[in-house]
Amino acid sequence: MAQAALDTHFSITDAEELYSIPAWASGYFRVGARGDMEVTLRSAPEHGASIAEIVGALRERGHQVPMIVRFPQIIEDRLDRINGAFAASMEEAGYGAHYQGVYPVKVNQRRMVIETIAEYGARYKTGLEAGSKAELALILVQDTHPEALICCNGFKDDDFVRLALWGRKLGKQVVITLEKHSELERVLRVSREMGVVPTIGIRYKLHAKGAGQWEASGGDDAKFGLTSTELIDAVARLREEGMLGSLQMIHCHVGSQLTDVRKIKVAVREAAQVYVDVRAMGAEVRFLNVGGGLAVDYDGSKTTFEASANYGISEYADTVVYTVKEVCDDGDAQHPVIVTESGRALTAHHAVLVLSVIDAIGPTRTPLELPSLEGEVHALVRDMEQLLRDVSIKTYREVYNEAVSNKETMHSLFDLGYLTLLERAHVEQLFQRVLIKIARVIEHVDYVPEELEALPRRLADKYVCNFSLFQGMPDHWAIQQLFPIVPLTRLGERPGRLATLVDISCDSDGKIEKFIDLRDVRNTLPVHDLVRGQPYYLGAFLTGAYQDVLANTHNLFGRVNEAHVRLDGSSWRVELLVNGQKARRVIQNMGYEFETLHGWLQEEIRESEAAGIVLSADEKRELAELYDAELVGYTYLE
Description:
The protein is an alpha/beta fold. It has 4 domains: 12-71 and 351-362 and 460-578, Lyase, Ornithine Decarboxylase, Chain A, domain 1, CATH 2.40.37.10; 96-342, Alpha-Beta Barrel (TIM Barrel); 379-456, Up-down Bundle (Methane Monooxygenase Hydroxylase, Chain G, domain 1), CATH 1.20.58; 594-632, no CATH class. It is 40% helix and 16% strand.
Protein backbone atom coordinates (compact mmCIF):
# COMPACT_ATOMS: atom_id res chain seq x y z
CA MET A 1 0.00 0.00 0.00
CA ALA A 2 1.08 3.57 -0.45
CA GLN A 3 0.06 4.98 2.91
CA ALA A 4 1.64 3.21 5.87
CA ALA A 5 0.25 3.37 9.37
CA LEU A 6 1.79 6.10 11.50
CA ASP A 7 3.83 5.04 14.51
CA THR A 8 5.14 7.59 16.97
CA HIS A 9 7.44 4.97 18.51
CA PHE A 10 9.74 4.64 15.50
CA SER A 11 13.43 4.72 16.43
CA ILE A 12 16.70 4.93 14.56
CA THR A 13 17.18 1.23 15.35
CA ASP A 14 13.91 0.55 13.55
CA ALA A 15 15.19 2.59 10.60
CA GLU A 16 18.43 0.62 10.44
CA GLU A 17 16.46 -2.60 10.45
CA LEU A 18 13.96 -1.35 7.86
CA TYR A 19 16.72 -0.46 5.38
CA SER A 20 19.02 -3.37 6.45
CA ILE A 21 21.82 -0.86 7.05
CA PRO A 22 24.00 -2.91 9.45
CA ALA A 23 23.82 -5.87 7.06
CA TRP A 24 25.33 -4.12 4.02
CA ALA A 25 27.17 -1.08 5.41
CA SER A 26 30.29 -3.01 6.59
CA GLY A 27 30.65 -0.56 9.47
CA TYR A 28 30.99 2.52 7.24
CA PHE A 29 27.44 3.86 7.42
CA ARG A 30 24.82 4.15 10.17
CA VAL A 31 21.88 6.20 11.34
CA GLY A 32 23.01 8.96 13.68
CA ALA A 33 21.25 10.12 16.83
CA ARG A 34 19.50 12.93 14.90
CA GLY A 35 18.13 10.57 12.29
CA ASP A 36 20.66 11.37 9.54
CA MET A 37 22.66 8.82 7.59
CA GLU A 38 26.24 9.12 8.78
CA VAL A 39 29.56 7.94 7.43
CA THR A 40 32.04 6.63 9.97
CA LEU A 41 35.37 4.86 10.09
CA ARG A 42 36.26 1.59 11.81
CA SER A 43 39.28 3.33 13.31
CA ALA A 44 37.08 5.94 15.04
CA PRO A 45 33.55 4.50 15.35
CA GLU A 46 32.64 7.06 18.00
CA HIS A 47 32.65 9.78 15.32
CA GLY A 48 30.29 10.11 12.39
CA ALA A 49 29.56 12.78 9.79
CA SER A 50 26.08 13.48 8.46
CA ILE A 51 26.05 12.98 4.69
CA ALA A 52 23.11 15.39 4.40
CA GLU A 53 25.10 18.08 6.25
CA ILE A 54 28.02 17.58 3.87
CA VAL A 55 25.67 17.94 0.89
CA GLY A 56 24.01 20.99 2.44
CA ALA A 57 27.36 22.70 2.97
CA LEU A 58 28.38 21.97 -0.60
CA ARG A 59 25.10 23.33 -1.92
CA GLU A 60 25.66 26.55 0.02
CA ARG A 61 28.92 26.85 -1.91
CA GLY A 62 26.98 26.57 -5.14
CA HIS A 63 27.49 22.89 -5.94
CA GLN A 64 24.29 21.27 -7.15
CA VAL A 65 22.87 17.81 -6.70
CA PRO A 66 22.95 15.16 -8.00
CA MET A 67 26.45 14.64 -6.72
CA ILE A 68 28.77 11.82 -5.75
CA VAL A 69 30.37 12.05 -2.33
CA ARG A 70 33.55 9.99 -2.14
CA PHE A 71 35.33 8.89 1.02
CA PRO A 72 38.93 7.84 0.17
CA GLN A 73 39.50 6.61 3.72
CA ILE A 74 37.02 3.81 3.04
CA ILE A 75 39.21 2.62 0.17
CA GLU A 76 42.19 2.73 2.53
CA ASP A 77 40.28 0.66 5.07
CA ARG A 78 39.31 -1.87 2.40
CA LEU A 79 43.02 -2.27 1.59
CA ASP A 80 43.71 -2.81 5.29
CA ARG A 81 40.93 -5.38 5.60
CA ILE A 82 41.87 -7.48 2.59
CA ASN A 83 45.61 -7.44 3.23
CA GLY A 84 45.05 -8.03 6.94
CA ALA A 85 42.81 -11.01 6.24
CA PHE A 86 45.40 -12.66 3.99
CA ALA A 87 48.24 -11.95 6.43
CA ALA A 88 46.28 -13.50 9.30
CA SER A 89 45.30 -16.54 7.26
CA MET A 90 48.86 -17.13 6.04
CA GLU A 91 50.30 -16.84 9.53
CA GLU A 92 47.74 -19.27 10.91
CA ALA A 93 48.28 -21.74 8.07
CA GLY A 94 52.07 -21.52 8.14
CA TYR A 95 52.05 -20.46 4.50
CA GLY A 96 55.50 -20.22 2.93
CA ALA A 97 55.04 -17.09 0.81
CA HIS A 98 53.16 -13.79 0.93
CA TYR A 99 50.14 -12.06 -0.59
CA GLN A 100 50.10 -9.20 -3.10
CA GLY A 101 46.90 -7.56 -4.27
CA VAL A 102 46.44 -6.04 -7.71
CA TYR A 103 43.67 -3.54 -8.42
CA PRO A 104 42.02 -3.85 -11.87
CA VAL A 105 41.57 -0.21 -12.85
CA LYS A 106 38.66 -1.05 -15.19
CA VAL A 107 36.49 -1.17 -12.06
CA ASN A 108 36.93 2.57 -11.54
CA GLN A 109 39.56 4.64 -13.30
CA ARG A 110 38.76 7.90 -11.50
CA ARG A 111 41.97 9.66 -10.52
CA MET A 112 41.20 9.74 -6.80
CA VAL A 113 40.53 6.01 -6.77
CA ILE A 114 43.72 4.97 -8.57
CA GLU A 115 45.95 7.39 -6.67
CA THR A 116 44.54 6.36 -3.31
CA ILE A 117 45.11 2.67 -4.05
CA ALA A 118 48.59 3.24 -5.48
CA GLU A 119 49.83 5.52 -2.70
CA TYR A 120 48.16 4.01 0.36
CA GLY A 121 48.50 0.50 -1.03
CA ALA A 122 52.26 0.93 -1.40
CA ARG A 123 52.62 -0.30 2.19
CA TYR A 124 51.19 -3.60 0.98
CA LYS A 125 52.97 -3.60 -2.42
CA THR A 126 49.54 -3.29 -4.03
CA GLY A 127 49.75 -3.34 -7.80
CA LEU A 128 47.51 -2.28 -10.67
CA GLU A 129 46.05 -4.16 -13.63
CA ALA A 130 45.52 -2.77 -17.12
CA GLY A 131 43.20 -4.15 -19.74
CA SER A 132 44.03 -1.63 -22.46
CA LYS A 133 46.83 0.67 -23.67
CA ALA A 134 45.09 3.70 -22.17
CA GLU A 135 44.84 2.03 -18.79
CA LEU A 136 48.50 0.99 -18.94
CA ALA A 137 49.45 4.59 -19.76
CA LEU A 138 47.68 5.69 -16.56
CA ILE A 139 49.28 2.95 -14.47
CA LEU A 140 52.90 3.39 -15.53
CA VAL A 141 53.06 6.89 -14.05
CA GLN A 142 51.48 6.02 -10.69
CA ASP A 143 53.52 6.15 -7.49
CA THR A 144 53.35 2.43 -6.72
CA HIS A 145 55.74 0.40 -4.59
CA PRO A 146 58.83 -0.74 -6.60
CA GLU A 147 57.81 -4.38 -6.05
CA ALA A 148 54.14 -3.82 -6.89
CA LEU A 149 52.93 -5.87 -9.85
CA ILE A 150 51.58 -4.27 -12.98
CA CYS A 151 49.51 -6.91 -14.74
CA CYS A 152 48.72 -6.39 -18.42
CA ASN A 153 45.57 -8.35 -19.17
CA GLY A 154 43.26 -8.31 -22.16
CA PHE A 155 44.00 -8.72 -25.85
CA LYS A 156 47.13 -6.91 -27.04
CA ASP A 157 48.64 -5.38 -30.15
CA ASP A 158 52.31 -4.54 -30.72
CA ASP A 159 52.08 -1.11 -29.10
CA PHE A 160 50.46 -2.55 -25.97
CA VAL A 161 53.36 -5.00 -25.66
CA ARG A 162 55.95 -2.27 -26.38
CA LEU A 163 54.50 -0.01 -23.68
CA ALA A 164 54.55 -2.89 -21.21
CA LEU A 165 58.20 -3.60 -22.05
CA TRP A 166 59.07 0.07 -21.63
CA GLY A 167 57.63 -0.35 -18.14
CA ARG A 168 60.15 -3.15 -17.61
CA LYS A 169 62.93 -0.82 -18.80
CA LEU A 170 61.79 1.72 -16.21
CA GLY A 171 62.22 -0.89 -13.49
CA LYS A 172 58.49 -1.63 -13.06
CA GLN A 173 57.36 -5.17 -12.25
CA VAL A 174 55.27 -5.48 -15.41
CA VAL A 175 53.72 -8.89 -16.16
CA ILE A 176 52.36 -9.48 -19.67
CA THR A 177 49.50 -11.94 -19.36
CA LEU A 178 48.92 -14.16 -22.38
CA GLU A 179 45.16 -14.27 -22.94
CA LYS A 180 45.34 -16.40 -26.08
CA HIS A 181 47.96 -18.75 -27.49
CA SER A 182 48.90 -16.57 -30.47
CA GLU A 183 49.97 -13.70 -28.21
CA LEU A 184 53.13 -15.56 -27.22
CA GLU A 185 54.76 -15.08 -30.63
CA ARG A 186 53.88 -11.38 -30.56
CA VAL A 187 55.51 -10.94 -27.14
CA LEU A 188 58.61 -12.90 -28.19
CA ARG A 189 59.01 -10.87 -31.41
CA VAL A 190 58.55 -7.43 -29.82
CA SER A 191 60.79 -8.28 -26.87
CA ARG A 192 63.55 -9.34 -29.30
CA GLU A 193 63.13 -6.08 -31.24
CA MET A 194 63.46 -4.04 -28.04
CA GLY A 195 66.08 -6.19 -26.37
CA VAL A 196 63.99 -6.54 -23.21
CA VAL A 197 63.41 -9.78 -21.35
CA PRO A 198 59.65 -9.92 -20.59
CA THR A 199 57.95 -11.21 -17.50
CA ILE A 200 55.15 -13.42 -18.71
CA GLY A 201 51.96 -14.68 -17.14
CA ILE A 202 49.62 -17.21 -18.69
CA ARG A 203 45.90 -17.12 -18.08
CA TYR A 204 44.66 -20.68 -17.87
CA LYS A 205 41.10 -21.41 -18.95
CA LEU A 206 39.60 -23.12 -15.91
CA HIS A 207 36.93 -25.72 -16.27
CA ALA A 208 35.46 -24.55 -12.95
CA LYS A 209 32.81 -21.84 -13.12
CA GLY A 210 31.81 -19.26 -10.58
CA ALA A 211 28.38 -18.47 -9.20
CA GLY A 212 26.22 -15.40 -9.68
CA GLN A 213 25.57 -12.79 -12.35
CA TRP A 214 28.91 -13.29 -14.14
CA GLU A 215 29.37 -17.05 -13.91
CA ALA A 216 29.50 -17.32 -17.72
CA SER A 217 32.86 -15.49 -17.73
CA GLY A 218 34.50 -18.69 -16.46
CA GLY A 219 34.43 -22.28 -17.63
CA ASP A 220 35.27 -23.93 -20.93
CA ASP A 221 33.49 -21.25 -22.97
CA ALA A 222 35.28 -18.33 -21.33
CA LYS A 223 36.45 -15.47 -23.54
CA PHE A 224 40.02 -15.49 -22.22
CA GLY A 225 42.60 -18.12 -21.41
CA LEU A 226 44.70 -20.95 -22.82
CA THR A 227 43.58 -24.56 -22.81
CA SER A 228 45.70 -27.33 -21.32
CA THR A 229 47.12 -28.19 -24.74
CA GLU A 230 47.95 -24.55 -25.49
CA LEU A 231 49.54 -24.07 -22.07
CA ILE A 232 51.80 -27.11 -22.54
CA ASP A 233 52.79 -25.86 -26.00
CA ALA A 234 53.52 -22.35 -24.66
CA VAL A 235 55.83 -23.79 -21.97
CA ALA A 236 57.62 -25.86 -24.62
CA ARG A 237 57.97 -22.82 -26.90
CA LEU A 238 59.49 -20.73 -24.10
CA ARG A 239 61.92 -23.55 -23.31
CA GLU A 240 62.85 -23.72 -26.98
CA GLU A 241 63.61 -19.99 -26.97
CA GLY A 242 65.62 -20.29 -23.77
CA MET A 243 63.11 -18.05 -22.03
CA LEU A 244 61.35 -20.44 -19.68
CA GLY A 245 62.54 -18.24 -16.82
CA SER A 246 60.31 -15.46 -18.14
CA LEU A 247 57.19 -17.42 -17.17
CA GLN A 248 56.53 -16.09 -13.68
CA MET A 249 52.74 -16.19 -13.21
CA ILE A 250 49.82 -18.54 -13.66
CA HIS A 251 46.62 -16.56 -13.88
CA CYS A 252 42.99 -17.59 -13.76
CA HIS A 253 39.64 -15.89 -13.40
CA VAL A 254 36.21 -17.36 -12.73
CA GLY A 255 34.06 -14.23 -12.73
CA SER A 256 33.07 -11.07 -10.90
CA GLN A 257 30.90 -10.96 -7.75
CA LEU A 258 31.34 -14.65 -6.89
CA THR A 259 28.46 -15.38 -4.53
CA ASP A 260 29.32 -18.91 -3.32
CA VAL A 261 32.57 -19.63 -1.48
CA ARG A 262 32.35 -23.32 -2.39
CA LYS A 263 32.69 -22.44 -6.08
CA ILE A 264 35.72 -20.32 -5.25
CA LYS A 265 37.38 -23.26 -3.52
CA VAL A 266 36.82 -25.52 -6.53
CA ALA A 267 38.29 -22.96 -8.92
CA VAL A 268 41.31 -22.19 -6.73
CA ARG A 269 42.04 -25.89 -6.35
CA GLU A 270 42.11 -26.33 -10.13
CA ALA A 271 44.31 -23.25 -10.57
CA ALA A 272 46.72 -24.42 -7.88
CA GLN A 273 47.00 -27.84 -9.53
CA VAL A 274 47.91 -26.12 -12.82
CA TYR A 275 50.59 -24.14 -10.96
CA VAL A 276 52.03 -27.32 -9.45
CA ASP A 277 52.13 -29.10 -12.83
CA VAL A 278 53.71 -26.14 -14.64
CA ARG A 279 56.48 -26.02 -12.03
CA ALA A 280 56.95 -29.75 -12.53
CA MET A 281 57.54 -28.97 -16.22
CA GLY A 282 60.58 -26.90 -15.22
CA ALA A 283 59.08 -23.41 -15.12
CA GLU A 284 59.98 -21.65 -11.88
CA VAL A 285 56.68 -19.83 -11.61
CA ARG A 286 56.51 -17.53 -8.57
CA PHE A 287 52.99 -16.09 -8.65
CA LEU A 288 49.55 -17.68 -8.64
CA ASN A 289 46.96 -15.07 -9.62
CA VAL A 290 43.45 -16.27 -8.76
CA GLY A 291 41.84 -13.21 -10.35
CA GLY A 292 38.96 -11.15 -9.09
CA GLY A 293 35.56 -12.09 -7.80
CA LEU A 294 35.65 -11.15 -4.10
CA ALA A 295 32.01 -10.20 -3.74
CA VAL A 296 30.23 -7.26 -2.15
CA ASP A 297 27.12 -8.03 -0.10
CA TYR A 298 24.85 -5.39 -1.63
CA ASP A 299 21.67 -6.56 0.08
CA GLY A 300 23.22 -7.81 3.31
CA SER A 301 21.49 -11.20 3.14
CA LYS A 302 24.76 -13.21 3.20
CA THR A 303 23.34 -15.69 0.70
CA THR A 304 24.25 -16.91 -2.78
CA PHE A 305 21.76 -14.44 -4.28
CA GLU A 306 23.46 -12.50 -7.09
CA ALA A 307 23.46 -9.26 -5.07
CA SER A 308 25.01 -10.94 -2.05
CA ALA A 309 27.67 -13.45 -0.95
CA ASN A 310 27.65 -16.29 1.57
CA TYR A 311 31.13 -15.39 2.87
CA GLY A 312 33.19 -12.45 4.08
CA ILE A 313 36.74 -11.25 3.46
CA SER A 314 38.32 -13.47 6.12
CA GLU A 315 36.57 -16.60 4.87
CA TYR A 316 37.60 -15.72 1.31
CA ALA A 317 41.25 -15.38 2.36
CA ASP A 318 41.12 -18.63 4.34
CA THR A 319 39.61 -20.47 1.38
CA VAL A 320 42.28 -19.27 -1.05
CA VAL A 321 45.26 -19.71 1.28
CA TYR A 322 44.41 -23.14 2.70
CA THR A 323 43.38 -24.54 -0.69
CA VAL A 324 46.59 -23.39 -2.40
CA LYS A 325 48.72 -24.68 0.50
CA GLU A 326 47.04 -28.08 0.48
CA VAL A 327 47.49 -28.59 -3.26
CA CYS A 328 51.11 -27.39 -3.21
CA ASP A 329 51.99 -29.54 -0.22
CA ASP A 330 50.43 -32.58 -1.86
CA GLY A 331 52.41 -31.85 -5.04
CA ASP A 332 55.63 -31.04 -3.17
CA ALA A 333 55.70 -27.60 -4.81
CA GLN A 334 56.96 -24.31 -3.45
CA HIS A 335 54.16 -22.08 -2.14
CA PRO A 336 53.48 -19.30 -4.66
CA VAL A 337 52.98 -15.63 -3.94
CA ILE A 338 49.19 -15.39 -4.00
CA VAL A 339 47.81 -12.58 -6.14
CA THR A 340 44.17 -11.47 -6.30
CA GLU A 341 42.60 -8.81 -8.50
CA SER A 342 39.85 -7.58 -6.21
CA GLY A 343 38.30 -4.40 -7.58
CA ARG A 344 34.66 -4.32 -6.57
CA ALA A 345 35.49 -5.20 -2.96
CA LEU A 346 38.02 -2.36 -2.79
CA THR A 347 35.96 0.45 -4.30
CA ALA A 348 32.22 -0.21 -4.03
CA HIS A 349 31.74 1.21 -0.53
CA HIS A 350 33.58 4.52 -0.95
CA ALA A 351 31.04 6.38 -3.09
CA VAL A 352 27.51 7.59 -2.34
CA LEU A 353 25.33 8.97 -5.12
CA VAL A 354 23.11 11.69 -3.64
CA LEU A 355 19.76 12.30 -5.33
CA SER A 356 17.21 14.99 -4.60
CA VAL A 357 13.51 14.15 -4.89
CA ILE A 358 11.83 16.95 -6.82
CA ASP A 359 8.26 15.67 -7.09
CA ALA A 360 5.91 12.84 -6.17
CA ILE A 361 3.22 11.44 -8.40
CA GLY A 362 0.97 8.45 -7.95
CA PRO A 363 -2.54 7.07 -7.64
CA THR A 364 -2.90 7.75 -3.92
CA ARG A 365 -1.94 11.39 -4.12
CA THR A 366 -4.75 13.88 -3.51
CA PRO A 367 -7.01 13.40 -6.55
CA LEU A 368 -8.18 16.29 -8.64
CA GLU A 369 -11.77 17.38 -8.03
CA LEU A 370 -14.00 16.06 -10.80
CA PRO A 371 -17.12 17.89 -11.97
CA SER A 372 -20.30 16.20 -10.76
CA LEU A 373 -22.21 14.00 -13.17
CA GLU A 374 -25.46 15.59 -14.30
CA GLY A 375 -28.69 13.74 -14.96
CA GLU A 376 -28.93 10.00 -14.58
CA VAL A 377 -25.68 8.48 -13.33
CA HIS A 378 -24.41 5.58 -15.43
CA ALA A 379 -24.98 2.16 -13.86
CA LEU A 380 -21.26 1.39 -13.97
CA VAL A 381 -20.50 4.45 -11.84
CA ARG A 382 -23.21 3.48 -9.33
CA ASP A 383 -21.84 -0.06 -9.20
CA MET A 384 -18.33 1.21 -8.40
CA GLU A 385 -19.70 3.46 -5.67
CA GLN A 386 -21.40 0.45 -4.10
CA LEU A 387 -18.24 -1.64 -4.30
CA LEU A 388 -16.36 1.09 -2.44
CA ARG A 389 -18.90 0.86 0.39
CA ASP A 390 -18.76 -2.96 0.41
CA VAL A 391 -15.00 -3.38 1.07
CA SER A 392 -14.43 -5.36 4.27
CA ILE A 393 -12.13 -8.07 5.59
CA LYS A 394 -14.74 -10.63 4.50
CA THR A 395 -15.47 -9.23 1.03
CA TYR A 396 -12.25 -7.59 -0.17
CA ARG A 397 -11.29 -10.36 -2.59
CA GLU A 398 -14.74 -10.51 -4.19
CA VAL A 399 -14.87 -6.71 -4.39
CA TYR A 400 -11.44 -6.60 -6.02
CA ASN A 401 -12.43 -9.04 -8.76
CA GLU A 402 -15.67 -7.14 -9.40
CA ALA A 403 -13.80 -3.82 -9.57
CA VAL A 404 -11.27 -5.18 -12.08
CA SER A 405 -14.11 -6.54 -14.20
CA ASN A 406 -15.88 -3.18 -14.08
CA LYS A 407 -12.76 -1.37 -15.18
CA GLU A 408 -12.40 -3.64 -18.20
CA THR A 409 -16.06 -3.03 -19.04
CA MET A 410 -15.46 0.71 -18.70
CA HIS A 411 -12.70 0.61 -21.35
CA SER A 412 -14.94 -1.31 -23.77
CA LEU A 413 -17.91 1.04 -23.28
CA PHE A 414 -15.74 4.12 -23.72
CA ASP A 415 -14.14 2.76 -26.92
CA LEU A 416 -17.61 2.15 -28.33
CA GLY A 417 -18.86 5.61 -27.38
CA TYR A 418 -21.30 4.47 -24.68
CA LEU A 419 -19.43 6.20 -21.88
CA THR A 420 -18.34 9.85 -21.72
CA LEU A 421 -14.85 10.98 -20.77
CA LEU A 422 -16.21 12.40 -17.51
CA GLU A 423 -17.94 9.12 -16.66
CA ARG A 424 -14.74 7.25 -17.43
CA ALA A 425 -12.79 9.57 -15.10
CA HIS A 426 -15.28 8.91 -12.28
CA VAL A 427 -14.98 5.13 -12.73
CA GLU A 428 -11.16 5.33 -12.75
CA GLN A 429 -11.11 7.45 -9.60
CA LEU A 430 -13.51 5.13 -7.80
CA PHE A 431 -11.42 2.14 -8.86
CA GLN A 432 -8.32 3.68 -7.26
CA ARG A 433 -10.26 4.40 -4.06
CA VAL A 434 -11.41 0.77 -3.95
CA LEU A 435 -7.81 -0.43 -4.29
CA ILE A 436 -6.61 1.89 -1.54
CA LYS A 437 -9.33 0.64 0.81
CA ILE A 438 -8.52 -3.00 0.00
CA ALA A 439 -4.81 -2.32 0.63
CA ARG A 440 -5.64 -1.08 4.12
CA VAL A 441 -7.67 -4.21 4.79
CA ILE A 442 -5.01 -6.71 3.67
CA GLU A 443 -2.52 -5.13 6.07
CA HIS A 444 -4.21 -7.18 8.76
CA VAL A 445 -4.64 -10.56 7.04
CA ASP A 446 -2.28 -13.49 7.44
CA TYR A 447 -2.47 -14.61 3.82
CA VAL A 448 -2.57 -12.23 0.86
CA PRO A 449 -4.13 -13.76 -2.29
CA GLU A 450 -1.79 -14.02 -5.25
CA GLU A 451 -3.74 -11.54 -7.34
CA LEU A 452 -3.28 -8.90 -4.64
CA GLU A 453 0.44 -9.39 -3.98
CA ALA A 454 1.34 -6.67 -6.49
CA LEU A 455 -1.12 -4.18 -5.03
CA PRO A 456 1.45 -2.24 -2.94
CA ARG A 457 3.60 -1.64 -6.02
CA ARG A 458 0.54 -0.69 -8.04
CA LEU A 459 -0.42 1.94 -5.48
CA ALA A 460 3.10 3.17 -4.79
CA ASP A 461 4.14 6.72 -5.44
CA LYS A 462 6.65 7.59 -8.10
CA TYR A 463 9.30 9.81 -6.56
CA VAL A 464 10.86 11.90 -9.32
CA CYS A 465 14.61 12.23 -8.69
CA ASN A 466 16.92 14.76 -10.30
CA PHE A 467 19.38 12.33 -11.90
CA SER A 468 19.84 9.99 -14.85
CA LEU A 469 19.81 6.28 -14.09
CA PHE A 470 21.95 5.68 -17.16
CA GLN A 471 24.64 8.01 -15.80
CA GLY A 472 24.39 7.32 -12.07
CA MET A 473 23.55 3.61 -11.79
CA PRO A 474 23.87 2.07 -15.26
CA ASP A 475 24.18 -1.46 -13.87
CA HIS A 476 20.67 -1.25 -12.42
CA TRP A 477 19.31 -0.43 -15.86
CA ALA A 478 21.48 -2.93 -17.74
CA ILE A 479 21.52 -5.99 -15.47
CA GLN A 480 19.15 -5.11 -12.61
CA GLN A 481 22.03 -4.80 -10.12
CA LEU A 482 20.62 -3.86 -6.72
CA PHE A 483 22.05 -1.00 -4.67
CA PRO A 484 21.05 0.03 -1.14
CA ILE A 485 19.00 3.25 -1.33
CA VAL A 486 18.17 5.11 1.89
CA PRO A 487 16.77 8.55 2.79
CA LEU A 488 19.60 10.67 4.17
CA THR A 489 17.44 12.43 6.77
CA ARG A 490 14.28 11.94 8.89
CA LEU A 491 15.26 8.38 9.81
CA GLY A 492 13.92 8.88 13.32
CA GLU A 493 10.51 9.26 11.72
CA ARG A 494 8.54 6.34 10.35
CA PRO A 495 8.38 6.58 6.54
CA GLY A 496 4.71 6.90 5.74
CA ARG A 497 4.70 6.05 2.04
CA LEU A 498 6.06 3.50 -0.41
CA ALA A 499 7.55 4.58 -3.71
CA THR A 500 9.42 3.59 -6.81
CA LEU A 501 11.95 6.03 -8.25
CA VAL A 502 12.01 7.63 -11.68
CA ASP A 503 14.72 9.80 -13.18
CA ILE A 504 14.42 12.92 -15.34
CA SER A 505 15.54 11.27 -18.57
CA CYS A 506 13.11 10.92 -21.46
CA ASP A 507 13.23 7.14 -21.28
CA SER A 508 10.72 4.77 -19.76
CA ASP A 509 13.60 2.58 -18.56
CA GLY A 510 14.82 5.41 -16.34
CA LYS A 511 13.25 3.98 -13.20
CA ILE A 512 14.09 1.89 -10.15
CA GLU A 513 11.46 -0.63 -9.16
CA LYS A 514 13.61 -3.19 -7.35
CA PHE A 515 15.20 -2.58 -3.96
CA ILE A 516 17.26 -4.62 -1.52
CA ASP A 517 15.70 -6.74 1.21
CA LEU A 518 17.13 -9.39 3.53
CA ARG A 519 14.57 -11.99 2.50
CA ASP A 520 13.54 -11.03 -1.03
CA VAL A 521 13.69 -8.22 -3.57
CA ARG A 522 11.37 -5.36 -2.60
CA ASN A 523 9.25 -3.72 -5.27
CA THR A 524 8.98 -0.43 -3.38
CA LEU A 525 11.11 1.78 -1.12
CA PRO A 526 9.76 3.14 2.20
CA VAL A 527 9.96 6.94 2.02
CA HIS A 528 8.67 10.00 3.83
CA ASP A 529 6.10 12.49 2.63
CA LEU A 530 7.70 15.46 0.95
CA VAL A 531 7.59 18.74 2.86
CA ARG A 532 7.31 21.90 0.79
CA GLY A 533 10.49 23.97 0.96
CA GLN A 534 12.49 21.16 2.61
CA PRO A 535 14.96 19.17 0.47
CA TYR A 536 14.56 15.41 0.55
CA TYR A 537 17.71 13.48 -0.32
CA LEU A 538 18.17 9.81 -1.09
CA GLY A 539 21.56 8.14 -1.00
CA ALA A 540 22.42 5.31 -3.36
CA PHE A 541 25.21 3.42 -1.59
CA LEU A 542 27.94 0.99 -2.73
CA THR A 543 28.09 2.67 -6.15
CA GLY A 544 31.88 3.04 -6.26
CA ALA A 545 32.55 0.05 -8.53
CA TYR A 546 31.87 0.13 -12.28
CA GLN A 547 29.12 2.80 -12.17
CA ASP A 548 31.54 5.67 -12.91
CA VAL A 549 33.12 3.91 -15.86
CA LEU A 550 29.98 2.39 -17.38
CA ALA A 551 27.99 5.63 -17.14
CA ASN A 552 26.65 7.04 -20.40
CA THR A 553 25.28 10.37 -21.57
CA HIS A 554 21.77 9.29 -22.53
CA ASN A 555 19.70 12.44 -23.16
CA LEU A 556 23.03 14.29 -22.87
CA PHE A 557 23.03 14.13 -19.09
CA GLY A 558 26.70 14.33 -18.16
CA ARG A 559 28.92 13.44 -15.22
CA VAL A 560 27.65 14.74 -11.91
CA ASN A 561 29.46 16.95 -9.40
CA GLU A 562 31.62 15.07 -6.94
CA ALA A 563 33.27 15.84 -3.63
CA HIS A 564 36.16 13.97 -2.02
CA VAL A 565 35.64 14.15 1.72
CA ARG A 566 38.04 13.14 4.50
CA LEU A 567 36.96 12.60 8.07
CA ASP A 568 39.09 13.97 10.88
CA GLY A 569 37.78 12.97 14.28
CA SER A 570 34.43 14.68 14.80
CA SER A 571 34.92 16.97 11.79
CA TRP A 572 35.30 16.57 8.06
CA ARG A 573 36.86 18.49 5.21
CA VAL A 574 36.51 18.54 1.46
CA GLU A 575 39.82 17.54 -0.11
CA LEU A 576 38.75 18.11 -3.69
CA LEU A 577 35.72 19.24 -5.65
CA VAL A 578 35.30 17.99 -9.21
CA ASN A 579 32.69 19.85 -11.21
CA GLY A 580 30.21 17.81 -13.20
CA GLN A 581 30.08 18.19 -16.94
CA LYS A 582 28.48 21.28 -18.37
CA ALA A 583 26.08 20.97 -21.28
CA ARG A 584 28.70 22.49 -23.59
CA ARG A 585 31.20 19.70 -22.82
CA VAL A 586 28.65 16.93 -23.37
CA ILE A 587 27.46 18.47 -26.63
CA GLN A 588 31.05 18.86 -27.85
CA ASN A 589 31.58 15.15 -27.25
CA MET A 590 28.88 14.58 -29.88
CA GLY A 591 30.82 16.54 -32.49
CA TYR A 592 29.38 20.04 -32.08
CA GLU A 593 31.27 23.25 -31.31
CA PHE A 594 29.94 26.08 -29.18
CA GLU A 595 30.67 28.76 -31.77
CA THR A 596 28.96 26.74 -34.49
CA LEU A 597 25.81 26.30 -32.44
CA HIS A 598 25.73 29.98 -31.55
CA GLY A 599 26.08 30.85 -35.25
CA TRP A 600 23.25 28.49 -36.15
CA LEU A 601 21.03 30.21 -33.58
CA GLN A 602 21.69 33.59 -35.17
CA GLU A 603 20.87 32.06 -38.55
CA GLU A 604 17.58 30.72 -37.19
CA ILE A 605 16.72 34.22 -35.94
CA ARG A 606 17.45 35.73 -39.36
CA GLU A 607 15.36 33.09 -41.13
CA SER A 608 12.43 33.66 -38.77
CA GLU A 609 12.61 37.40 -39.46
CA ALA A 610 12.64 36.71 -43.19
CA ALA A 611 9.46 34.69 -42.66
CA GLY A 612 7.80 37.66 -40.99
CA ILE A 613 8.48 36.83 -37.32
CA VAL A 614 10.01 39.95 -35.84
CA LEU A 615 11.96 39.87 -32.59
CA SER A 616 12.98 43.02 -30.81
CA ALA A 617 16.63 43.67 -30.00
CA ASP A 618 15.92 42.88 -26.35
CA GLU A 619 14.22 39.60 -27.27
CA LYS A 620 17.16 38.56 -29.46
CA ARG A 621 19.58 39.36 -26.67
CA GLU A 622 17.46 37.50 -24.09
CA LEU A 623 17.24 34.40 -26.30
CA ALA A 624 20.98 34.41 -27.00
CA GLU A 625 21.82 34.84 -23.30
CA LEU A 626 19.51 31.98 -22.31
CA TYR A 627 20.87 29.71 -25.04
CA ASP A 628 24.49 30.45 -24.12
CA ALA A 629 23.75 30.03 -20.41
CA GLU A 630 22.20 26.63 -21.02
CA LEU A 631 25.26 25.54 -22.97
CA VAL A 632 27.51 26.29 -20.00
CA GLY A 633 25.09 25.15 -17.28
CA TYR A 634 24.81 21.87 -15.35
CA THR A 635 23.02 19.25 -17.44
CA TYR A 636 20.64 18.42 -14.55
CA LEU A 637 17.79 20.48 -13.17
CA GLU A 638 18.96 23.47 -11.15
